Each structure stands twice: as structure tokens, then as C-alpha cells.
Amino acid sequence: MKNLKNVIVITIDNDAEGRQIMLILLAAGIAHIRSAQPHGASLEKEHGIQELVLASGKTEVWTVEIPGPAMENLFRRNGLTLTIIDHHTYGQLDRAHDTFGKRKLGSLEQFLLLAGITDKDLRKWKFDPRLVHGIGVMDDRFVRGLRTEGFSPEEVRRVIAYREMLDRQINPEYDLIASVAENVWQTRRLEQGYLICTSTSDLRVSYAVCTRSITDSLEEHPLILVDRGGRQIYVSNVPYTIIKKLEEAFEGHRTFTYALGRCWGIDNDAVNIPKITLEEILSVVTRV
Prior knowledge:
By secondary structure, the protein is an alpha/beta fold. 43% of the residues lie in helices and 18% in strands.
């Protein structure tokens, strides 16, 4: 591992990848600030973050999937070196590509490379390197990515089981969410080539539904998921041309992409913006 004595990492801890990064930070003794924000985290919502960073005395700040251009600029104006670790887009804010337009690796993969953390380091800290790398690949490229990277069927099962263990650490409602996701999955319907899943629960079940789809070998089938009664809607496993249509149709709304840019979501919790419906999204994705 590199010498990171001047680095402080601000990271989310709201999914398996985030938890894996947190565990490595702790094991490696790397200074960090844990954000308790759920999905949709931003630096602007992280109360007192500037004061915490300055008080640390560190000269470099690494942020993990917690965007915030205004706060990022403030860090720079305070003389701090900023490194952004991310692989998503947030509306017009592109954190998925480098300055040359090349798609970035997943956040855990980026972190390991930036920190110079080797498999030997991971083993010293009692991690299984294959499982750690599997979490990084799966977060970015899901099960297809594991297969592409040469993970055997048994290794894929082990990564999925390890991912569940990490999820359980951060989510006390894991079993309840899994139960709701099972009902949502069993009541899915097929409409114009898309699997349609709808949840009216206040719980976020999109992650669990996608995981459930693996069991039926449908994890790569085009899917539209209406989560939390329409507060968030996700479109998964579609070509980039469809993603572009969605971005153009709903420009100005709080949208984001993930999973190699082939999955898209919209957050209807944004204030003062008309809510987008399943029907409106279907009309875009099925338009010739």
C-alpha cells in the first residue's frame, strides 16, 4: 500500500461496495469520514464536512461517490488536493468517464488502484482478495461483469453470498426488504419487452429486486422498477441509445446512470419538479 498519511477519505456506507471500502479503510488505518447518507448522498448535505476535513490536518481529500461541485471547489480553494472516486452520472454531472471520455472502473476498483492496495495487503488484513475484487466488479458490471472477468459459477455464488453478508451489516431491515422484493418480483409483468416491477412499500427494494432476478437468470433482461410508490423509478439493462433518450426526455430532473451506463434512474423526491410516471417512461423507452 502507498503512504497515505496526508490523505483523508470521505466515503458513503450505504451498500455492499461502500461497506467493503469502509472495512478496508479501517483495516489499513487510513483516515476517513463516514457519511451516513443513503443513496443520493452529496457533499452539500454532509453537515460540517469542511470543518472536519480542515481539522484533520490532511492535505489530500478523496471522495467516494459523494458528489458536490460547490464543496469540491471550496476544498480546492482551501489548498487541498481533491481526488474524486466515482463511476456514475448525476444528470449533467459526469463522473463515469475520464477527461478522454474513457469509462472508469468501479469505485472500489479505483480505490484499490489509487491506494496501491495489493492482494497481499488484503490477505494481511484477513480479506479474501477474490471476494473483494468480486464486490468491485459486481457493483459496476453486475453478474455479467463477474463472468467476463473469469469468475467461475462457484466464485459467482461466493461473491453473491459475501455481498449479502455486507448488505446485512448495514441494513437491519435486510430480511424485510428481501421479503417485499420477493413479492414485487413474483407479481412482475411483461409489457412491450420490459419486465415491470412495482413496489408501494416505503422501503427501498430496487437493489433487492435486481439481486432476486439473478436466481431466475433474468438479471440481464430489460427491467423497469417503480420503487417506493414511484418516488424513484429505475430502467435497467437497456442500450445506450435508450439511456440517451431518457436523459433528453427528462432533462432538468434529478436523474442518474450506473452499471456501465446501461441503467438509469429518476428521483421523484426532488422538490418543485413535476413527478415522472411509469407511463411517461414507457412512452420514451418504447418510442421507435
